[in-house]
Amino acid sequence: MEVHSWKSTSIITFRIDMKAKAAEDPVAILQAAHEAASLSKVKTEEQLAAEKAWYNAEKVWLVHKDGFSLATQLKTEMGSLPEGKVKVRLEHDGTLLEVDEDDVEKANPLSYDRVEDLSSLLYLNESSILHTLRQRYGGNLIHSYAGSNLLVINPLSTPAMYSEKVMQMFKGCRREETAPHIFAVAQSAYHQLLTTRQDQTIALLGRSGSGKTTTCQHLLQYLVTIAAGSGKVYSAEKWQAVYSVLEAFGNCSTAMNGNASRFSHIVSLDFDQAGQVASASVQTMLLEKFRVTRRPEAESSFNVFYYLMAGADASLKTELHFNHFAENNTFGLLPHSKPEDKQKATQQFTKLQAAMKVLGISAEEQKTVWLILGAIYHLGAAGATKAGRKQFARHEWAQKAAYLLGCTLEELSSAIFKQQGKSTLPRSVSVRQSTDDTDSSVSKATAAECLESMASGLYSELFTLIISLINRALKSSQHSLCSLLIVDTPGFQNPRQVKNQRGATFEELCHNYAQERLQMLFQERTFVRELERYKEENIEITLDDLEPSPSRSLAVIDQSSSQALVRTLSRTDEARGLFWLMEEEVLQPGGSEETLLQRLFSYYGPSEGESTGRTAVLKSENAHHFLLGHSYGTDWVEYDTRGWLNLARQNPSPQNAANLLQNSQKKSISGMFVGRSNSAAVLTGSIAGLEGVSQLALRRATGMRKTFTTGMAAVKKKSLCLQIKLQVDALLDTVRRSRVHFVHCLLPRAEVLRAAGSSEESCDPGLMQMDVALLRAQIRGFKLLDSLRIYRQGYPDHMVFSEFRRRFDILAPHLTKKLGRNYIVKDEKRAVEELLESLELEKSSYHMGLSRVFFRAGTVAKLEGQRDEHTRQNITLFQAACRGFLSRQAFKKRKIQDLAIRCVQKNIKKNHGVKDWPWWKLFTTVRPLVEVQLTEEQIRGKDEEIIHLKLKLEKVEKERNELRLTSDRMESRITELTAELSDERNSAESTSQLLETETSERLRLEKDMKDMQVKFDSVKKQMESMEMEIMEARLLHASELNGEMDIEVDVDSGGEWRLKYERAIRDMDFTKKKLHQEMDDKLETEQQNKRHLERKFAELQADQEESQRSVQQLKKKCQRLAAELQDAKLHLENQEGRNHELERKQRKFDVEKNQAQEELQKERNLREKLARDRDMLAGEMFTIRQQLEEKDTELCTVRVKIEQLESEVQDLSSTESKEEASLAKVKKQLRDLEAKVKDQEEELDEQAGSIQMLEQAKLRLEMEMERLKQTHSKELDSKDEEVEEIRLSCSKKLKQMEVQIEEEYDDKQRVLREKRDLESKLMTAQEQVCHKDVETEKRLRKDLKRTKVLLADAQIMLDHLKTNVPSKREIAALKNKLEESEFACAAAVKARKSMELEIEDLHIQMDDITKAKMSLEEQISRVQREKNDLQSRFEEDQEDMNELMKKHKAAVAQSTRDLAQISDLQIQVEEAMKEKQEIHDKLHSLQSQLEFQEQSMVEKSLVSRQEAKIRELETKLEYEKTQTKRLESLVTRLKENLEKMTEERDQRVTSENREKDQNKRMQRQIRDIKEEMTELSKKETEASRKKHELEMDIESLEAANQSLQADLKLAFKRIGDLQAAMEDEMETDDDDDLINSGDESDMDSEVEDRVDGVKSLLSKSKGSTKTLTDEGTQKTTSPPLYRLHSVQDDEDNTGPEKDTTQTGRTNLKDINGDSQPSESAA
User: Fold this and answer.
1) Can you tell me the distance from the alpha carbon of 1141 to that of 717, in angstroms, rounded to the nearest whole number?
2) pLDDT: is 1621 or 370 the higher one?
3) pTM here?
4) How far apart are CA 1353 and CA 577, in angstroms?
């Protein structure tokens, strides 16, 4: 087999000939890939064999830090490798490695390399997914399905897979019919929108530079192309112009992307009833407006500034004062220095102007946009002072900015620096208090910050204006039914991704936050909602524990507190997100970035001793930096918080910017901003593009406004930080109302993002690279593996019972016919179950819930395909009926036209007849003159009516226009009033909430104040009492001092008291020293205990971490094994489904076979009927031949008579004399003769007609027989071939069955031999073990007497030591040892009993197997006999068939001969007809002669002779009639005989059918016997497995016996050492020879019990050692404690024996490391 080899590096390079790829047709590439993926599902025998060889080779992926490599897992012996290790061999160089099990993942066969849907992989793991994506990416297939989602890998260049031709390929197709593509997702969303009438959303997820915006453009291009309106209003050109404008005003160049979007937007397409685009709109949010003034290093501002500076013409530059640019600009807005950059910017500016023209933006409006952009540039050139008074640094540039804005310099300076903006906050107490704080914070802003705020506000208003102009070009007043939304946000951004060492900015945090929220929505829709639905429908599904959602990182950013509505200056300990902390720190007097980070770390950072793996925030080495884990902790981004609080401070400059633009002296500026000042005032600076005319656009705008005006948002909507959260909330609320389709855009590598965005020439066109580590991180961040698992293991498709029945009952016509097409059933579930049973679906492919039916992936698509096919057939029949009806109608119309043409022709003929008539000419001349007067009067009346109607129309049109304007004004007024009403209502609700919270807060504070007052009173009382005590102490001290002075005066009199005082002082000093010494000792002991506890705590913590690591590894291993198990289960279900499909095909084949047999039976019947017809034709031919012969004889006689008559006529003509008397009589006779001749002629004519009819019938029968002969010969040949094939297949099956029976007999004999061998081994093993037990028992009894004395001495020593130093701990240890030894003995006995029971069960099973074998042999012999009978019958049937074939061939030959004879007879009949015609001619001539003779005189004799001849002819004619009747009776008899023969043949055919049925029945019996044989073989394998287990148990028992014998030897050695030591002691102490008999008896009983325990351990060879080994492994931790206690006890309680016992234990530990309970018992 050919095996791929790849280098184990993270950058995998695929060299592709781009010219060849460009030359290829993208449609052909997609079709070829889809056909290859479809063909891979239907596998040939060679492919199945190759896959089997692949599975046997055990190909795996070796995962390492740089990527993954293909390897082969090698099989090793047990114990040759450490636990958790496997040995692999790399494919590319053959290196052998020992790696961890976790680093190895199973590889899929080669047929899965370019699979279209990743969920169909056999082994689902990260390496297999990456390998499949890599293979498809190398083949220029950048799209792949991941369950219900789509993966798009950015090719870093524009491929040719988005052309018009590719669009037509996907138009109207289902997902299963085409290759993965972004157009397929758009088509699927569009189809679901039309069928369900539900809003759809396509959400794009991915990193910055992964191609989301480009994908969004392709989606819009496809939707607009396939669903364009009647007037082509929303063309691809217009949408291209929209994105050209958006890229100019919203995109810029960053370190990660050369053309990065710096705003989020939603594109809304509204569709009407017919599925066409009725209207469209664009909503934008999260604009980086501060990028105008400041941005990270090496990044640019928005593109439009550079386009304007490079592409403006001379007049525009003069008007904008761009003739000379400033050398330095505060905002960093400088023109390009490179000529190529200038040229490119000029081209882009021209393109921008053309796009604005396409969107209907007039030249005056464009000029307004350029004026505002020029003003922003001049503000940056003017700058601001850094110290002192707040003012412009360069007033000349500020003057230019003021001129462009249409205001004076004073007005501009006041708006920027004096901060006299109007406050628009809600009217509430807390908010009014906050305005003071805001003013104070604004007063601290520097002049540069005020200038930057004004510039960003101007650009924000300009961007909102641009979005309004775009929506104006896209709006429409048509009625719309549902919408399709496309969500595009800036991608996830991490500067470290492109080796940039700077920290991420606040704007990048906002974009990452939006991506996290969308990722959370994906998890909610993919995992949470699906699992909840399964739980509601009582569907059990086993899934691994899912990892936590990204809510941890989201909580760090936006977690709100319980007192979110109350803005206080006090800091609380309740955790809250970064946005809320920034708002609080802005309001705090001493708030800074340091305190912000300290609070953030205190809430979300890791605590002391906690591992960092469970936290989402970490400290950074850099100051003012912190790390935040995004995408489930797979991507850590370092953020720089410097300047964040300045962004969060409320600054009225943006509002002043709006007022400045509205009050501009230039009408073009003020006119564009005044009109939109009231409509979007609620969301100023937040969301742009909420204006709209359609009903759906108004509904979306109302939903977004509601997000900003309800609850917490009504109070906090002016908070610049929380506006970010509110914008994302509005975005998510809009998306949640629809059905979401997720598209994951992947970034293949990060190094070329900048180059790819800047210039396409910098990329190597022949090199396509992929960073595997980056791609793996993105897949983990998307939770792609978990989503694929839940998609595979769950039921992703589901339908309500009624919906499923209505949609798919077309596939069960018998149910529809039975219950009616529009029937209503009471039990929908039962109806759906009947429908599913009729569809013959596999049981595992669907699951019945409580209210809906759930399907596995692909089942509904299969049913949809069947439904489409059935519908196609029905439509085809309907079309045929319609065409037939139309054809009949057209034929009737043609008939009417024919009649009309004939009528016209008739009138034209009449006109030709009267056109020269004078009166007609006069009529045609006068009539028009009469009608002229009437027509003139009618024309005048019509003219007057037309004038009247025109006036009325003008009046109605004028009224309609007025009413339309009035309705438009009223509608706009209604929308404004509705918005104001909702705002007022929401503000009232928020105010009431605020009032309630403040009331509760006030009550709480009052309660706290009362508590504090009570505490204050108690403390005051305590303080007063303390003051009294202090005063008393001072008084006592003063009295003591006075007493000492008195003592000094009276020294002589008070000496005794002085001595007592000194002694008391000395006692007190001594007591102090003693207490100090005790305290020092206690402190030292406490410190030692503390160090000990700390050391112990460190050890426990290390153990805990180690156990956590081991638990994590085990959990990971368990998850991997569970995933492999689920893959195996799914593979098994696929195999079962395939088997079900094969069984269904087999049933279908059986039905077709029965139909073929029925057709064969019909063919035989037809052949018999043909034989009967042939016999009938042969009889008729025989009769006709006889008739021809008779006619020949008659012709001969007639000829003779004619000759005689001719001679007589001649004789009569020769006579000259005639008698006159006989003339009348002759005439009379002649008339009689003529009458008779006429009668005979009529009879002859009738016979001739009957002869012709018979000839025609004969011809028809001949033609029919020839046709039937040909068709039947062909059919008989095909049936003969089929019979031959069936006979060969039956013979092959019989041979295979014979071979299988022989193999099974051999297997049975082998199993019997193995059974006998196993029984003999068991007997020998039992004998050996019994013999060994007897020997050991004798030896132990022999040594028992010798050990009793030694043990008694040891007991005396122990008693002596107990009398000297009693130790309860030793007694407890000995008791524990004794209990454990007894427990081990009991366990061993229990294991022995269980093993004996298992052996008995095995014997019983072997007896059952032998009985089953005997019965099976009898069945086999019976089947063999039946097979021989069937074979003999089959041979007889074959001989009968050969005979029938011979008869058939003979009949065919006979039919050919009969046909030849019929053709000869036909020729003869034709000749007879010719002769008959000649006879008629002669008869006419004779009649003429007779007439001539009548005229002449004829003799009487001649007339009499003529009459005699006529009478003879009549007699002959009667004879012929009787002959024909006789022949007819003969034909009827022959027909009766033929019918009897057919009945006999039918009976023979029925007997053959019965024999065939019996043959089939025997085949089924053979198949059943074969299944029984397979079951018996399985039982035999089970028996062999148990036999192997018994052998292993015997080996383990032998090993245990050997280890126990070694332990006994060691114990004997230790007893000898003890005996020697005891003899020494006995020599020194003669007084200790007396031994208590009671103690001796107790010791003897104890020794005997231990010996019995050893014997029981040794006699366990017949049982299983499994339980013993399990208990030994469970107690591996307890024996070291035994040794520890025993060693400590010996150290405490033994004297001279300390060394010997210690060495004995160490030796025992060294010999047998596994300290089992037998050691302690010994």
Assistant:
1) 61
2) 370
3) 0.60
4) 78
